[in-house]
Amino acid sequence: MTPARRTTAVAATATAVVLATAGGLLTAAAAPAAAAVTCTSPVYKQQFFANTSFSGTPKKTLCDSAIDQNWGTGAPTSGLPSNNFGVRWSVTRDFGSGGPFTFTASGLDGIRVYLDGTRKIDLWKNGTTTVSKTVNLTIPSGKHTLRVDYVNWTGSAKVKFTYAPRTSATVDKTRPLAPTGLAATYSAATQQTKLTWSKNKEMDLAGYRVHRQVAGSGSWKLLTTTTGTSYTDTTPANGAKYEYLVVAMDKAGNISPETARTTVTSTALGTPTGFTATGTDTGVALSWNAVPGASRYRVIRTGTNVPSASWQPTGTSMTDTSVARSVDFTYRVAAVDASGGAVTYTAATTTRRLVAAPTELKAFPQWSSITLTWRMDEDEDTGGDYRGFHIYRYREATGSWIRLQYCDPYRRTLADGSVQHLCTDSSLEPGDTHRYAIAAYDKYETDSARTAEVVAKASTDGTGPSAPAATATPSDWGTTLTWKPVTDADLDRYSVWRGTTVVEGGSTVCSAPEHIGYADVDETSYRDANPADGEKLCYVVRPVDFAENAGAGTTLHITEPDLRPTVETPSGATHTAWASVTSFGTEVALTLTSPAGTEDYYGTRVSRWNPQTGIFDPLPESDYSPLYDRGVPTGTTLWYQVSGVREDGSSSLPVLVSVAVPPLS
Question: What's the pTM value of the predicted model, to 2 decimals?
Fold first, then answer.
């Protein structure tokens, strides 16, 4: 019949095959059937006998990795009977530190197990059922011999035997043996130490722990836990002496004694040289010289009431873009070895990021001057603590830049709400060409990065800005002019003109316009307070550039409302009178003046026209001039009759005067 399991064999003249172990358990092996067969521990030598007394020369000898056979009712190998045969297994192996083990045997028919010749299991009888037994015992440390005898008298034949350490922490109190052969080799090129040691003999080995300390410090660091017999440590490259040791640990958690210590001396990284920290527009630029053997560098930033930070660049430069402008920050740098440890830091260097640089620099020429305009981020969080500007002009004669002392910058707001800065470089010769650049400076008088250069030539600019689209709206108090902003970059202001509308040759024209005021570049309206007496007026809004060129304006024609009194004022008065709105905006000052050589007046008598009643309402008399009419209505035109009061109480003929009172808003 075919056996359920057979031991693997090869020709008798072949050399024995050495079998390996895996986790203390036996794998497969095969050897020739010959008297000179040698099996490498922990593989068993297996001998077959054609009797049950194990007498005489074995019929065959093999190497067997495990005792677990089921031959059924057939012969276990050629040359043996199917009944009354014997098989013996034997092995001598190193049990390391020994400790508690479990032996388990089963068989059909008989099986006996011996340790160093002492019987530990005895199941020796001819039967028809499988018998088995398990025993727990303690094996001393070192080498011991196991022998298993099996016989089959009649019927089926099968046998099994296993042994294994007991790994429960409550049972196993035996420490593993210390690993042996620990050696260390240090490489200065890689800053690494290669550790090797011999494999421990323990069958319940869980692994090894590798420790390191600065020699003599007494402060051991666990580097790794491994099941292998080597480890490569990246040793701190600081020139110190380091000690290593290894311990074994078993599955019950027992730790072996330490190995002998092995020592290496690491190389020492230098401190970076040439360290600089320079404030720039984008941040603080840091640079240093390379340190041989450094795997990277560690840069740290500190400061008073400022956030700290650190970086680990692999190169020899970086820019810290996270800092605020105009704030002192302190930096240091150290080389970092392959283990991640930093060595000695450089001396601290303190600097600050520059304030933001001006932008959009432009130059506009006039006859003997050049006006420069630019923008600036005035937010302290983003622009920095800037205090002003330095204007630079390139001097062709010397080939160098000079700082202008007489170009005083000033600030103005444009119609779109943005801020513009400008100054004028005066007293230039017409035709001169100049190059300019501008830098902001902070409270430390440190310049920002300069703008890009602009080039301009002092020359005649005869082109005025483009005309604005404008409207004119008459009201009871005057006229409101509004216009769309002019976008010419050299716009300086708006000039407002007023004339009289007349018809000449069939065409409506603006006759004799006169200049009545200016509006700044951020203004888009102008109010002309003019008494509403029904005149036909015309207005022109002209933009003016830095070169005083006034652009053409659109002529606007309006007709004022007529709010004149319907009661006439007598003529023939010998005095004159004026009315003006005071700064309060709700009172009118009325002044009477007598021409030289005429009578003197001792008071002023005033009446104000009431359009609702159609009469002049008298105001309280006053011995003083001017007389104030307080709490007047706004957004309209007021008309007054003003008379002088004589010493006898009589009054002169009245003079009619008017005043436009604009709305308060």
Answer: 0.63
